[in-house]
């Protein structure tokens, strides 16, 4: 099948985005979705390769421009592979292979040392040189069973951010603490807008709390939301969902966890995408209260420049 690969022009971003959404069996983006803060910036901050059959977009592969932390603390340029998909009617015709090959070659020419992605299907990316480099847990802690912290925590104070100050404050803190573990990446403004969308919305029960060290430096934060599930015949305890938690050190992270685990009115704490060496796991009074509900291949990596030192 003949098709053309080309760098996606801005006037075709939305067309490529809708093709990608269709490849994942999702509806096209609405005007409201496309107009969300940071949406077009996320395309502007990426390298986008699209495949075309005449005037029809039939495939896409893109990569964000990131810096990634390596073991030992060094940071190198990385291609954050994203929005990979082929139109349902044009699969198994070489479109994906051609788009990925072009994307990875371009990324290497741009000076990227690594390419990384999160895989929608684990059987796809091995043939493009990727392998699992990191895993994560989704975790539940039941306060009714006595889940509590039993470890030293960093000294300091907490404050809850208003919506008006959330974006600027979290951006500044993440710039200081966001490379605390291998695989962590920098975040552009559009990424913070995406991750903090619920906290910035006026109608969501989502909160951002910052930890401040004794010297006055903000050195960590947690974003969480609260739901009140109704269970017939049961008391109405809340469920706290922790979306993100970052600290400048394990002790700061544990201080934030202590704050979360001592919230009033909360029965269950659900935590998403925690690293397998999560300090919380080993700091609980009873490790059995750290209940893993899911284990996922969180990051896939491929070397692009084996000689980069």
At a glance:
The protein is of the alpha+beta class.
Tell me what the structure shows.
- With 309 residues, this protein is an alpha+beta fold.
- 26% of the residues lie in helices and 35% in strands.
- Strands 1-2-3-4-5-12-6-11-10-9-8-7 form a twelve-stranded mixed sheet, sandwiched between helices.
- A hairpin with a 2-residue loop joins strand 2 (46-53) and strand 3.
- The chain is globular, with a radius of gyration of 21 Å.
- The protein starts with a strand and ends in a 6-residue tail after the last strand.
- The model has no long low-confidence stretch (mean pLDDT 94).
Q: State the helical fraction.
A: 25-40%
Distance between the amino and carboxyl termini: 41 Å
Number of helices: 9
Helices and strands: which structural class?
A: alpha+beta
Strand content: 25-35%
Instruction: Please state the overall shape, judged from the principal axes of the Cα atoms.
Output: globular
Report the major sheet: 12 strands, mixed
Q: What are the segments in which pLDDT stays under 50 over at least 5 consecutive residues?
A: none
Strand count: 12
Order of helices and strands: EHHHEEEHEEEHHHEEEHEHE
**Average predicted confidence as pLDDT:** 94
- Computed CA radius of gyration, to the nearest angstrom: 21 Å
Strand order in space, largest sheet: 1-2-3-4-5-12-6-11-10-9-8-7
């Amino acid at each position: 099948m003949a098709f053309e690969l080309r760098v996606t022009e801005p006037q075709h971003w939305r067309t490529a985005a809708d093709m990608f959404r269709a490849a994942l069996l999702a509806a096209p983006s609405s005007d409201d979705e496309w107009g969300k803060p940071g949406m077009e910036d996320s395309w502007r901050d990426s390298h986008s390769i699209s495949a075309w059959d005449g005037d029809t977009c039939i495939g896409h592969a893109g990569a964000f421009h990131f810096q990634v932390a390596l073991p030992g603390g060094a940071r190198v340029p990385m291609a954050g592979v994203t929005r990979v998909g082929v139109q349902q009617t044009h699969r198994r015709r070489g479109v994906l292979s051609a788009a990925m090959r072009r994307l990875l070659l371009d990324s290497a020419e741009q000076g990227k040392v690594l390419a990384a992605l999160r895989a929608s299907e684990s059987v796809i990316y091995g043939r493009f040189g990727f392998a699992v480099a990191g895993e994560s847990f989704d975790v539940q802690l039941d306060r009714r069973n006595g889940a509590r912290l039993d470890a030293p925590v960093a000294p300091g104070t907490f404050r809850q951010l208003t919506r008006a100050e959330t974006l600027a404050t979290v951006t500044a803190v993440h710039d200081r603490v966001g490379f605390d573990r291998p695989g962590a990446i920098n975040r552009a403004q559009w990424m913070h807008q995406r991750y903090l969308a619920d906290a910035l919305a006026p109608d969501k029960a989502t909160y951002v709390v910052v930890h401040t060290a004794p010297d006055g430096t903000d050195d960590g934060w947690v974003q969480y939301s609260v739901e009140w599930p109704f269970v017939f015949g049961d008391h109405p305890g809340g469920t706290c969902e922790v979306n993100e938690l970052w600290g400048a050190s394990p002790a700061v992270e544990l201080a934030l966890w202590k704050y979360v685990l001592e919230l009033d009115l909360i029965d269950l704490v659900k935590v998403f995408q925690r690293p397998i060496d999560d300090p919380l796991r080993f700091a609980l009074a009873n490790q059995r209260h750290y209940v893993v509900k899911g284990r996922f291949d969180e990051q896939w990596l491929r070397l692009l420049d084996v000689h980069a030192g």
